[in-house]
Amino acid sequence: MIVPLVGGGSYDSTVYCRCQGQVISDFFVKCDGDEECPNGGWVHPHCTTDLKNKTQEEVDNIEEWYCEDCI
Whole-number mean pLDDT of the chain? Predict the structure, then answer.
C-alpha cells in the first residue's frame, strides 16, 4: 500500500512509521489500529519484525494487521 498524501501532494514522513522518516520509501502497510496507532496508522513493512522479509505481494494480501506498537 502507498501511504495517503497530505497537503500539497506529499506526505510528512516523520508522522508515519516507527522510523520517523529515517527510511525513505513510499511502500507502507496500514495498521488497523488507525487513529490510536502511534505510528500514524502506516508503517514500512521493513521496519517491522513480522513483515520485513515478506514481498510486496504478500504484504498487499494481508487483510488485517496491527503493528507491534498496537498489539
Answer: 83
- Going by pLDDT thresholds of 50, 70 and 90, the confidence category of residue 3 is low
Which residues make Cβ contacts (< 8 Å) with residue 52, sequence separation at least 6?
45, 46
Rounded to whole angstroms, the Cα distance separating 23 from 58 reads: 20
Question: pTM for the full model?
Answer: 0.76
**CB count in 10 Å sphere of residue 51:** 18
| Cβ-proximal residues to 40 (8 Å cutoff; 6+ apart), any chain | 15, 16, 17
Matching residue, cell 505481494: 57
Q: Among 3.30.40.10, 3.20.20.10, 3.30.365.10, 3.90.320.10, name the CATH number for the domain at 1-71.
A: 3.30.40.10
Written as nine digits, the cell of 20 is: 520517523
Distance between CA 37 and CA 43 in Å, rounded?
Answer: 10
